[in-house]
C-alpha cells in the first residue's frame, strides 16, 4: 500500500507509434509474417489521390483509421488517412471505462487538454493538427512520426554516450520550458513518450493528456495514476498537488536511465517501486556507472530531488545546466585551440611589426618632408669641403639647427634671440 494507506493505484502507459522496420524488404517481410510492424502505405484504394491501400478499420471525424499502432489505459493510437489534406496522420482516441455520466464529464476535459496541446508549436514536440469529438469519444490527430521511442531504443540495446544523453535531454527540457511557459504540463514524461526521429531528434508525445488524471474531484479517475511508477514524482504517487516540477523530476529519471541503462528506482512489484520513490534515494549515476561524469550525474540527481523545492526552478534552468555541461565537455580541445589562437596572434603581431618598418606609399613622402629642411645645410657643407680641398680660404660653417619632431611648434621669439646671442658669444 502507498504511504498513508491510500487505495491501490492503477498505472497505464501510452504506446506511441511503433518503430519502423528497416532494410531492404523489411516491411514486406513483416507484413507477410503477420507482424504488427508498420506496413508501407500503398497506392490509392480509398477515394482520393494518394490514399493508402489498407482497408479502413473505422472512421473518426474525417479520418480513416488504417492500422493500430498502440494501445494504453486512456485509448489507442492508429495510423490514419486525412482525405482533406491527402496525408497520413496518427490519430489517438481517448476513452476511460466509465459510465455515461462520467464520460460526459471527462470528455470535455480531455478535449480542452487536447486543444491546449494543439496550440504548442516546437521543434521537439509532436505537432497536433486537430482535436474533436466523435461517437467513440475524444480524438486527437497529430503528425505521423517515423522512428522509435526511447523505450524501444533502450530495449534494442542503444547505449548513448554521456554527451548524447545530455544533448537529447537538453532538447526535451527546451520543449518542456516552452510548454510550461504556456501553461501546459505534461505529467507523464517517460522514455515511451519521447520519440526519436530517424535523424536523432527527440519529439515529446501526449502533452497535457495525463494531467486530466491528476485533477481533483473526478470520481471516475479515483485510484488511477496516469504514468509509469518508475518516472512519477513522489507528489504524484502521494496524490498531492502537481506542477511543472513533476515534469523535471520525470526528465531527471529519464536522464539517469540513459546514463546508466537502469531505472533510478526499481523493485519487484509496483508497491516496492512506489515505496522506493516515496522514501528512497537513488544511487548517484556516476557511482553506478564509472563512465558517467560527476557533474552530469549531479544534474540528474538534482532533478530527481524528492522535495520539489530542491529541484531546478524550471525546465529552462535545467536546460541551461545541460548546455553548460555540454560546453565544458569540449574542454579537452581547449588547450590546442588556445595554442593555435596564440600562434595566430603572434603571427599577426609579427606581420604588423614588419608592416610598420616596411616602406609604404605614404612613408616615403613623409621622410622627404623631414629631409627637406636639411638640404641647404648639406649643400653648404659640401661646398665648404670642396673649397678646403682646393686650398681656398674657408669660413667655419654655422651649425644647422636640428629638426624637431614632425609637427612640433616653433620656439618663442625670445628664446630664439637668446640662443643667437649665445652662439655669437662663443664665436667671439
What portion of the residues fall into strands of 2 or more residues? 5-15%
Based on DSSP secondary structure assignment, what is the total number of beta strands?
A: 11
- Tally of helical runs: 14
Helical percentage? 40-55%
- Reading the helices and strands in chain order gives EHEEEEHEEEHHEEEHHHHHHHHHH
Distance between the termini: 124 Å
Structural class: alpha+beta
- Strand order, sheet with most strands: 2-3-4-5-7-6
How confident overall, as mean pLDDT? 73
- Global outline: elongated
How many strands, which pairing sense, and closed or not: the largest β-sheet? 6 strands, antiparallel
> Over all CA atoms, what is the radius of gyration?
40 Å
Could you list the spans in which at least 5 consecutive residues all have pLDDT below 50? 1-49, 220-224, 332-340, 346-367, 394-428
Structure characterization notes:
With 428 residues, the protein is of the alpha+beta class. The chain has helices spanning 26-32, 100-118, 150-155, 162-181, 234-237, 244-260, 270-279, 285-288, 294-303, 315-328, 334-357, 363-371, 375-389, 413-427, and strands at 10-12, 58-60, 63-72, 75-82, 87-94, 128-134, 137-143, 147-149, 194-197, 202-204, 224-226. The strands form 3 sheets. It has a 6-stranded antiparallel sheet. It has a 3-stranded antiparallel sheet with strand order 8-9-10. A two-stranded parallel sheet has the order 1-11. It is elongated, with a radius of gyration of 40 Å. The termini are far apart. The model is unreliable at 1-49, 220-224, 332-340, 346-367 and 394-428 (pLDDT under 50).
